[in-house]
Amino acid sequence: MKLAAVEVDDVQKHGVSAADKHDGGGVLRPSRICYLVILSTTFWTLLFYVHSSMQGGDGVASILLKPSAFSLPVLSSITGGRRTPPEQPPAVAAQENRSVTAPTDHCAGRYIYVYDLPPRFNDDIIRDCSSLWRWSNFCPYVANCGMGEAMGDEGGVFSSTGWYHTDQFMLDIIFRGRMRAYECLTDDSSLAAAVFVPFYASQDSGRYLFNGTSPMRDALALDLVEWLARRPEWRAMGGRDHFLVAGRTQWDFLRRIDDDADDGWGNKLLSLPAAQNMTALMLETTQGLKQRTLAVPYPTYFHPAAAADVVAWQEKVRGAERRWLFTFAGAPRPGSSTTVRAEIIQQCGASSRCRLFNCGAGAADCSSPGGVMRAFESSSFCLQPRGDTLTRKSTFDTILAGCIPVFFHPGSAYTQYTAHLPEDPKSYSVLIMHSDVTAGNVSIEETLSKIPPETVRAMREEVIRLIPRVVYADPRSRRVDFKDAFDVAVEAVIDRVAKRRRDTAAGRE
Fold first, then answer.
1. Phi–psi pair at 293, nearest 5 degrees
2. Which residues have a Cβ under 8 Å from the Cβ of 332 and sit 6 or more positions away?
3. Which residue in 122, 261, 341, 401 is deepest, having the highest Cβ count within 10 Å?
4. Contacts of 281 (CB under 8 A, 6+ apart)
5. Reduced to 3 states, what is the DSSP secondary structure of residue 244?
6. Three-state DSSP class for 329?
């Protein structure tokens, strides 16, 4: 029929069937043939693109399919891991970063900013090392980053490496060396948990203790606080996030602010108002200074480079033969026969179970590290009365030797080294009050003999466990893999500064 012919012709002309019409009419859909053509064209285009890409040239595909600034990345930039976000304007990137979880920063809350001080505050002081002490040349003690000259094994007393003839007042230099290797240093003070001031306070004070005038003793300390006060890092918290090392006892830095007499002792560093905002790490402190000082261990002769050195030494002292019940190494104080030290020497000398290492004139040389350590390694208990002040370097030599310290005043350790020693003093030491000894009410030998053997073994093991916490690792080592006295001190400073920040935010400071 003619009508049928017209309908067929119309379909052929327009390529549209009734089935392909939209129900609403007017809008046409592509036929199946169109779909096949499109798919075929796309397939051959992609095949041509892949072939061109494999040839490595800038062919047609690379030109036609080159992504624009607004296109999606090409296949080769998409990986199975996290996709690197495209570059964005700083404002947009900052806004988006607030909602993106950053990778864990193991240094968060532990960053330290270190001042680059003018050399007059540190290096210039020790450059003239021969004048650091009135009676001797201190250059040998400055060597090896403040550890002093290396020693041998002293006839088997020491292990083969890590032992140095270290002076007790070299902590400023040793600490600065350890700080150089600290893993969380930052050049951005706004990120810092604390700010370190690498001033050689001990060396500056020591060189003028016996041969300087008041202006000479105070000059560099005054210069330092003036220099710091001009720095923006200082003004951020008024210095309350700053810390320095003053590796002597507190009395060497506490001359009164109004004392300008040449015969006064020490300098005014810790009496200066600005310096009172900082935390000073010292070998000894007092109750009145606890808020702005922190007592840290005296340097010993042992500076291990790695944990393996510590473990080897611990095993050595753990297996040492303890032939003596107790030992005292020291000298009597001239003109004083009623002190606890005099009574200790008397009781030790009268006992067959005590090793008396007499450091008096003409006796054993207490400056010999090997001799002192040999005496401590052969004893179960080591007596530690106060020295020129409440504390003694010998306390840490005792711990290093695996010998249980016996104190005669709580201020010799318990109220001092709270960050480094256990809270329970009975776990690692014995306290015999000095007043009981001087009054003749206590026999040291009898008191120590009554401690059960199993308790002695437990106490000794605790002492040996403490060794890494009270030694300063070799500042030159990049293999330090244990927490030493430096690490413990830095953690304590960071905790203190964090507390100050919290108190400030809460209006308590």
1. -135, 165
2. 341, 342, 345, 360
3. 401
4. 171, 175, 243, 244, 245, 246, 247, 293, 294, 296, 489, 493
5. strand
6. strand
pTM of the predicted protein model: 0.79
Q: Pick from 123, 302, 285, 296: which is nearest to 198 by CA?
A: 123
**Of 243, 229, 235, which is closest to residue 199 (Cα–Cα)?**
243
Check if the beta carbon of residue 415 is closer than 8 Å to that of residue 407. no
pLDDT tier at 195, thresholds 50, 70, 90? very high
SS3 216: helix
CB 171 within 8 A of CB 299: yes
What Rg value do the Cα atoms of the chain yield, rounded? 37
Whether the Cβ atoms of residue 315 and residue 343 lie closer than 8 Å to each other: no
pLDDT tens-digit readout, 323-365: 999 999 998 887 666 789 999 999 999 999 999 998 876 555 6
User: Whole-angstrom Cα distance, residue 305 to residue 308?
Assistant: 8
Smallest CA-to-CA distance from 193 within 107, 278, 106 is with: 107
If 0-12 CB within 10 Å is exposed, 13-18 middle and 19+ buried, where does residue 198 land?
buried
